[in-house]
Design brief:
- The protein is α+β, with helices and mostly antiparallel strands.
- The protein has 2 domains: 197 residues, 2-Layer Sandwich (PmbA/TldD fold), CATH 3.30.2290; 209 residues, no CATH class.
- Helix content is 19%, strand content 37%.
- The protein is built from 8 helices and 23 strands.
- Strands 7, 8, 15, 16, 17, 18, 19, 22 and 23 form a 9-stranded mixed sheet that branches.
- Strand 20 and strand 21 form a beta hairpin.
- The longest helix is centred in the middle third of the chain and has 15 residues.
- The termini are far apart.
Length: 413
């Protein structure tokens, strides 16, 4: 196979710029469903080539470096328009922050143990499925401008889904946890949360009262806020006029929101972004004031601002702007007998340009028991404006790092 240096050197000799994203992933998956276990082992490797020739962008991907990959990228560049902002970034110093758990190189025995621990749920609930996934990835990013970085990251994901079958079948409750390390997942929490939520949903009734305030769990915040913040705080969205958030906008809740890709153990953390630039913390909202947007090198160059190194990609895709770990902070509140929203459906139907949403909460409860589906409607700006405070049980669920959020001003029917 052609070496990186020879491959990039050849492209540089053509008066072109090029960057290669090389990924190798090895994963192991153990699943349990309907009392049957299955095991999958996977390995994938690929190269994504981004090429800029005469200010035209070309892209191709494949399983090896070589003339075929180069020819496909050159061909695709000829079909694209000239863009003066097409250029690849130069190197910056990368700090080593990732945590690698060597036990996840061959995690099969650990995955079996996790599945066995989660199987205890069968004593009290109807388990629909259990999955345990572990492994590691190796990433390299090199370009003709001098970027040459690599990293190795371990990963672990656990998930369980269950319901209750009795006089009435309850909605499916699912719980998950992810980490870079075997030592940083709380299996006991997964078991307790699943059992308690299935139990509370056994007694459901329709919402028949006006509710002024509602609590979103970390799971619900992840399902609703993570995709809307990722889109709404993209510099591309802002420059295209496709976001409800304006620079300098003020929220009376004085909530602070930051993107933090440098958190140890988090599955969404990264030493460098998809372009090989060092990851950095970005304050999106500070004390209620919109401060910044996330960007990759292209949109930072196009907007004439300093980039935030927030590009995400796989070897099959070009870089796109994405959040990592979204940390929410603000005033605190003490939990009592509020209405809790835990699981949402239909977030994909939201209007990401205006921020409007109308979603179904199929897992919701208060101190008297569960509720049948509740429709929650509003605007992402109203939600942030209406945050009264956060509970003190700070935890990460998906991309969200937060306490539960007490919110006022939304429509619930």
């Amino acid at each position: 196979m052609v070496s990186f240096d020879n491959f990039l050197g050849k492209i540089k000799g053509m008066n072109a710029e090029a960057g290669v994203f090389h990924a190798k992933v090895r994963s192991y998956e153990l699943s349990y469903s309907k009392k049957e276990k299955s095991f999958l082992r996977g390995e994938e490797e690929g190269y994504g080539l981004r090429l800029i020739k005469d200010k035209r962008l070309g892209f191709s991907y494949g399983n090896s470096l070589g003339d075929g990959l180069l020819e496909m990228a050159l061909s695709s560049s000829k079909a694209n328009e000239v863009d003066e902002f097409n250029s690849l970034p130069f190197p910056e110093k990368v700090e080593r922050v990732e945590v690698f758990d060597s036990r996840l190189i061959d995690p099969v025995s650990y995955l079996k143990d996790f599945v066995e621990q989660l199987s205890v749920l069968e004593d009290t609930v109807n388990v629909l499925g259990i999955r345990a996934v572990g492994g590691y990835s190796e990433i390299e990013v090199k370009n003709t401008q001098g970027i040459d970085v690599s990293t190795r990251s371990s990963f672990l994901w656990l998930g369980v889904s269950a319901n209750y079958k009795g006089d009435e079948i309850t909605p499916e409750v699912y719980e998950m946890a992810s980490s870079r390390s075997l030592s940083n997942v709380n299996v006991k929490r997964l078991i307790n949360d699943t059992r308690e939520k299935v139990e509370v949903m056994k007694k459901r009734r329709k919402l028949s009262k006006r509710v002024g305030e509602v609590v979103f769990t970390q799971k619900a915040l992840n399902e609703l806020l993570a995709p809307m913040i990722t889109h709404g705080f993209s510099l591309e969205s802002y420059k295209r006029g496709a976001t409800p958030f304006e620079q300098g906008q003020f929220f009376a809740s004085r909530v602070s929101v930051r993107d933090d890709p440098l958190m140890p153990y988090s599955a969404w953390s990264r030493e460098f972004d998809g372009e090989g630039l060092p990851s950095m913390r970005v304050q999106l909202i500070e004390e209620g004031v919109v401060k910044s947007y996330l960007s990759d090198s292209y949109w930072a160059r196009k907007a004439g601002v300093k980039g935030t190194h927030s590009a995400y990609r796989t070897y099959r895709t070009l870089p796109s702007i994405s959040a990592s770990n979204i940390v929410l902070e603000g005033n605190s509140f003490k939990e009592s007998n509020e209405l809790y929203i835990d699981q949402l459906e239909g977030v994909h139907t939201s209007n990401f340009v205006t921020g409007e949403f109308s979603v179904s909460a199929n897992v919701a409860w208060d101190g008297e028991g569960g509720y049948r589906e509740i429709v929650v409607s509003g605007n992402i700006k109203d939600l942030i404006e209406g945050i009264v405070g956060f509970s003190k049980d700070l935890m990460q669920y998906g991309k969200i790092v937060s306490g539960k959020a007490l919110v006022k001003g939304l429509s619930l029917i």
